[in-house]
Amino acid sequence: MSPRTGMFAKLTAPFANKPNDFTRLISNSISFASTRTKEYLVFKDPEGKFQPSPQTLTQVFLMNYITQSVNLDLTDTFSCTSMTPEQRILLGADWVWAILKKPTKNPKIQIAVQVLHLPEREEAEERATARKPISESIQMAQMESRNKNMYERMVDFCTSIGKDCYALFLFFGKRDDKVNIYGVLSNNFEAAVGKCDKIDRALIENFFKGSRYFHTPFGMMQTIFTKNTEEALTLMIKFS
Hints:
Protein name: Rab15 effector protein
Number of strands: 6
Strand order of the largest sheet: 1-2-3-4-5-6
Helix content: 40-55%
Largest sheet: 6 strands, mixed
InterPro entries: Rab15_effector (IPR027985)
Shape: globular
Strand content: 15-25%
């Protein structure tokens, strides 16, 4: 008997040479992870004893994204590299998505992602981690990066690669909508350095002010794929 063809093999086979369908599969994985993560953002414990930590929420997103991308057979063309704690301190990114060239699998386009949680969640995690011992490698990374904040470090990382590397600040809730996931993506954040003292959370959140249109994950990926390499691009996205 010939082996049975799986559902996802049937789904992905016809899309091999169609960029729009490939883009849709990537955005499907991102939307799937966003929807599952939103379930945790919406959840409220009636007794107020349980609240997912920022680290847990980030892991929930990554685990669901990776599961879906493996099911859709995307990992050879669109990779996801999770940063170590030391790399996260030095580069400011939680993970990096990359569109890979064939057959070399070298990155063609990269998206460095930094997750921003609600301030009250981050403050609670900082209090919890302050009591834990810090490894020597973490201390060295902190010393190496002490002159710049985490937002500036990720922008520097992307700028050092070029216009085909995008910084995506991913908000797991924001002040006026705490249960949805939003993002600010740009390959031109360094342009803001000449207009202000530093890149910080307030600067990034300011992109949302007055914004009437948000791209979908599919719209984000489609725009990245179709634009000229050296062209500056900034988008606001709603993921859930």
